[in-house]
Specification:
Elements (H helix, E strand, L loop, with lengths): L1 H16 L4 H34 L3 H25 L2 H28 L14 H23 L4 H39 L3 E3 L6 E3 L3 E7 L4 H9 L12 E3 L2 E2 L5 H10 L8 H11 L2 H7 L2 E6 L19 E3 L4 E2 L2 H16 L18 E2 L13 H12 L2 E3 L3 E8 L22 H21 L7 E6 L19 E4 L9 E3 L3 E2 L3 H9 L21 E7 L8 E9 L8 E10 L4
Parallel strand pairs: 2-10, 3-11, 3-12, 4-14, 5-15, 6-11
Antiparallel strand pairs: 1-7, 4-13, 8-9, 12-13, 16-17, 17-18
Helix pairs in contact: 2-3, 2-4, 2-6, 2-11, 3-4, 3-11, 4-5, 4-6, 5-6, 7-13, 8-9
């Protein structure tokens, strides 16, 4: 009884000295719950529900560290508010409450104006003016909240108002997540239960002693970018032995999805289902199966999500498919940090948003056991591949011909590669340095083919999956051409030639089939070299606006009659609502 009375007395003295009332306690607990619930639960889960197919890690990987961080945040904030008195308590409360309310407002603003993540290179960071205006708004509103709750004569009423707004935010944020839970859960359970297969890095530096078809696809290899390389008088231009530069080439699509799959299969999408398009295209197309039936070993190095979902449907076609073990996250701390960093892009002030975070930032954290790693295009993957090439060179196999389709990050921002194809450290890389570095890799790759006596008989194509968009959110106001360099089998010993023939990705398969001398039952159409210069050709390009979470994307069909460089030849001939580009 004595110990009980002693403890009761201690808590009474503590409550009296800290001025702990029922109202203060409830306010402290609400605030301690609201801040981590919004920042560490609602915001990360909202982003994960929308992007889990691309993020790859599982719920069990990030729920424990998020809950742990939430509990720590709750304890720290609640104790700080309970144990502080008067004005200090009111200031801490006002800052925490203001943070929750302003973070919700910022989320709404970001969602309405969202055009992509700067780390994906699809959109620029906010302008200096926007950053300043946004920061001033945050500071004024936080300052006003502090003044109302700590210095205003009716501070008690203002604190109650802040508590009400925090509750309202929590309810609205929680309710807004409900519609995404059911579709997420149904897709998630399918992904967890299915036999996951992926395209690995196996055979990535392997060529054939017989016949080689090598397609280098540089992401976002716009025609303007190759012109920059030409204007820089790069020594790597001289290495384009036997190549023809097609200066009027148009891609089918403006982005990696569905551009890469279209290049590999020739199939078009109606954008009703990304998953169905990726699944069906590879089974419906005869191109890859024709290569295989003609004795070619097929190595596909393309990114997941954008070019395939589950490579199970490629296991009978590509030689570098591997059955995935359970995805494993090696560094849970790094996962927690990146998850919060990604979600903070939506709720944080513009001045504090990361300009490097993207959905691809997590790929280096995921492993699938001891098998060859999944092939992905991270920001430094080109540099890593070049370093591996310098250490290993090219291996050869003599049982089959080899078809290698290698999608490199290439010219895609943010720029992280220097002119030596190394991950930049001291200097700030540029578009030109990154493009130069990639051509250094390709030049040395082709030199090894020459050293092995394999260059002359090889078909080599260097191109982009698409050009460079000025904006994701509006139709074009200028032509967009994709760089294209082609060396057909038997062509060598001549400097780079230029052709003004009006070509497109529709000519890709015919070029490969004709150059390699492959026999098929299907007519693949006209090769690049068979398109006469000076002849007007009608070409088609599909552009889709990308509004992110607004789910109001529109597909514009452009018909190009005549020179692609003349924008007056680009006509919008139809439009249709997509709903959401990546659905």
């Amino acid at each position: 009884m004595k110990n009980s009375k002693t403890s009761d007395g201690f808590f009474k003295r503590l409550a009296a000295s800290r001025e702990i009332t029922k109202g203060k306690l409830l306010r402290s607990l609400l605030t301690g719950f609201a801040v981590p619930f919004f920042l560490f639960i609602c915001a990360p889960f909202s982003v994960y529900f929308s992007n889990f197919e691309e993020l790859e890690f599982r719920l069990e990987d990030f729920i424990p560290p998020l809950l742990f961080a939430s509990v720590l945040g709750f304890v720290a904030i609640a104790l700080a508010l309970v144990l502080t008195k008067k004005r200090i308590h009111n200031i801490i409360f006002a800052l925490c409450g203001g943070l929750v309310i302003l973070a919700y407002i910022q989320t709404m603003i970001t969602t309405l104006t969202f055009k992509g993540l700067p780390g994906d290179g699809n959109t620029a960071s906010a302008s200096a003016l926007n950053i300043i205006v946004n920061l001033v708004f945050w500071l004024i509103m936080l300052g006003l909240t502090v003044w109302l709750c700590a210095f205003f004569s009716k501070a008690a009423m203002c604190k109650n108002a802040v508590c009400f707004l925090m509750c309202l935010v929590l309810v609205m944020q929680g309710v807004s997540m409900i519609p995404s839970v059911k579709p997420f859960w149904s897709k998630y359970m399918v992904a967890v239960k299915s036999n996951q297969t992926y395209l690995s890095t196996e055979n990535i530096l392997e060529v054939s002693e017989k016949n080689n078809i090598i397609v280098f696809v540089l992401d976002r290899f716009d025609n303007k970018y190759f012109q920059k390389l030409l204007d820089s008088h790069s020594p790597y231009i001289e290495s384009l032995d036997g190549f023809t530069y097609y200066e009027d080439n148009i891609s089918k699509y403006p982005r990696t999805f569905p551009g890469i799959t279209s290049m590999l299969t020739g199939c078009e999408t109606d954008f009703t289902s990304r998953n169905n398009y990726l699944n069906n295209s590879y089974s419906e197309s005869s191109f890859l199966s024709d290569l295989k039936s003609n004795g070619y070993k097929i190595n596909l190095f393309v990114p997941s999500f954008y070019a395939y979902d589950n490579a199970e449907y490629l296991k009978d076609i590509a030689s570098n498919t591997q059955r995935a073990g359970k995805p494993r996250v090696e560094n849970k701390g790094a996962l927690l940090s990146k998850t919060i960093e990604l979600s903070s892009y939506f709720w944080a002030p513009e001045a504090l948003k990361s300009n490097k975070i993207s959905t691809t930032s997590f790929k280096d954290l995921i492993s699938y056991g001891d098998s060859a790693p999944i092939y992905e295009m991270t920001q430094t993957s080109d540099a890593s591949l070049y370093a591996r090439f310098k250490g290993e060179g090219l291996s050869t196999q003599k049982e089959n011909g080899t078809f290698t389709f290698l999608h490199l990050r290439g010219c895609h921002s943010p720029y992280t590669i220097d002119a030596n194809c190394s991950a930049a450290t001291s200097t700030q890389p540029t578009l030109l340095s990154q493009t130069t570095g990639i051509f250094k890799f390709i030049t040395e790759y082709m030199q090894v083919l020459k050293d092995k006596g394999l260059y002359d008989d090889a078909t080599i194509i260097i191109t982009g999956d698409h050009g460079a968009l000025k904006t994701d959110g509006a139709p074009y106001d200028e032509s967009i051409l994709t760089a294209l360099l082609v060396k057909e089998k038997g062509q060598s010993g001549t400097p780079l030639k230029t052709s003004s023939a009006q070509v497109s990705q529709d000519n890709l398969h015919a070029t490969i089939i004709n150059s390699a001398g492959i026999k098929t039952h299907r007519d693949y159409g006209t090769a690049y070299s068979q398109v006469p210069e000076g002849e007007d050709v009608v070409r088609t390009h599909y552009f889709q606006t990308y509004t992110g979470s607004a789910r109001k994307d529109i597909n514009y069909t452009y018909t190009i009659k005549g020179k692609g460089s003349d924008f007056s030849n680009w006509e919008i001939t139809s439009t249709n609502d997509v709903g959401y580009l990546y659905q």
